[in-house]
Amino acid sequence: MPADRLTVVIAAHDEAQALPLLHPRLCAVLDTLDGIDGRILYVDDGSHDATWAVMEALAAQDPLVGVLRLSRNFGKEAALTAGLDFVDSGAVMILDADGQDPPELIPAFVALWREGYDNIYGTRLARDGEGWIKRATAAAFYRVIGRLSKTPIPADTGDFRLLSPRALQALRQLRERHRFMKGLFGWVGFRRKAVPYHRHARLVGDSKFGLWRLWNFALEGITGFSTAPLRVTTYLGLAAASFAFLFALVVVTKAALYGDRVAGWPTMMAVILFLGGVQLIALGLIGEYLGRLYEESKQRPLYLVDTWQAPIVADSAAHPVGGEQGHDHGSTAVGRQVP
Ligand code: UDP
Ligand code: MG
Question: In the chain, which residues have pLDDT < 50?
């Protein structure tokens, strides 16, 4: 029976110190997997440090390692998309470069894949090395998006996951510009299964996702997977209009009964300011969606490739048609076109 191909895709931005620590662990784990043709694909997401040099060195030592360098920093979501696009065949395992997702768990994911699951994701039991603010905001975010969106987005789940070949093919068809990967993984569906795990602290360095970036990330998630805010605005408008109508009745009746003595300037100011505020919020909200529509309509590629170096090892007999079909070196394509 031919071995099943599994490619571990790792997006890295300024992880020159973490990669040399992670790589041996990863190789050790892949070696223990029976019947699995393990590969590793490192994606350099426009690092400013020696990450690319480290990756090239790893690829030179290890024929199973492929390396991909993007033309600049496109963000983790785009870097992952690029990595997934350059996987020829088989399943993929997505891992953080910083060691927060322990590679030692890969056999557990593979076992579930063997059982027939397609979309196997790691769910965090604990978040070592993360402050309470990050934990609390993360928890709040998952609750909100869980309510707002019809797409199943499991709580405390990151990008640490295994996708079967068909789930990977499905995911590749989603070419939207604003990529909220957690949501996209959920959207794909198929047979899903959680693997609870303890999220470790980073091996070295600091997280690239500060609170502001996480806030924007949350906006991305909500606008990408729910139009509920737009609908809420409608209801808010209806509520404000009903209130204004009642208020007008009161004012007119009062004027009819007691005459109009040009009083009520404070009330008027309050109403004007309140309505002005509500309208601005509504406009801002519409703007959020409109802006995304605009980005989408430009149809720019999701990322640009600087250098692509496939694993040196020859394709095994299990993948005769595989190989480097269509990898245009240093090209500008959106990665590979999806059939
Ligand atoms: N990352 C990336 N591009 C970026 C930012 C981050 O590829 O622009 C990678 C980073 O190297 C790491 C992973 O995404 O492998 C997660 O990043 P980080 O550890 O900073 O985020 P956190 O784990 O705190 O959510
Ligand atoms: Mg991390």
Answer: 317-339
For residue 73, the ligand 1 atom closest to its alpha carbon is 8
CA-CA distance, 271 to 244, in Å (whole number)? 9
Q: pLDDT for 57-95, tens place per residue?
A: 999 888 889 999 999 999 899 999 999 999 988 899 999
Q: Which residues surround ligand 2, an ion (CB under 5 A)?
A: 96, 98, 100
Query: Distance between CA atoms of 162 and 183, rounded to whole angstroms?
Result: 15
**Contact yes or no for 11/45 (Cβ under 8 A):** yes
Ligand 2 mean position, distance from CA 214 (Å): 13
pLDDT digits (tens, 9 = 90+) for 189-210: 898 899 988 877 777 777 766 7
Three state DSSP letters for 105-172: HHHHHHHHHHCCCCEEEEEEEEECCCCHHHHHHHHHHHHHHHHHCCCCCCCCEEEEEEECHHHHHHHH
For the chain, what is the largest distance between any 2 Cα atoms, rounded to a whole number of angstroms?
Answer: 95
The DSSP code sequence of 205-263 is S--S--HHHHHHHHHHHHHHH--HHHHHHHHHHHHHHHHHHHHHHHHHHHHHHH---S-
